[in-house]
Amino acid sequence: MISKIKAWARNLKKQLYILYFAYKDGRVPWYTKLFTACVVAYAFSPVDLIPDFIPVLGYVDDIIIVPLGIMIALRLIPENVIRDCSEKASELMKNGKPKNWIAGSIIILIWFLILVGTVFALRTFIK
């Protein structure tokens, strides 16, 4: 069972790399690039929208949201682009994944705004 999970994770990682290269490909329509960019940025982000320390919900993005986004994006990309990007992805997997600090910063900003809004609401409510 552990070997199946590891194989699934490797496949998921390769699919993310395929999307990463497909985003840069000129043969992909703009709306697919936009969706693909969002999926890749979120998956490569060092910060999750739902932090992993939150019981159960923390892993929802890792188990459901990211694979679902990958599946949808791969269906939107032309097959010939996927083939070409698959070769590039295989090579990139040997070198390590890129980090998207911009997406991570945006997610941190969202959490900060939620925290500030909560503190402001509690302060107003307690008065």
From TrEMBL:
Keywords: Membrane, Transmembrane, Transmembrane helix. The keyword Methyltransferase does not apply. Residues 33-68 form the DUF1232 domain. Pfam families: DUF1232 (PF06803). It comes from the Bacteria. Its main location: membrane. It is found in: Endomembrane system. This is DUF1232 domain-containing protein.
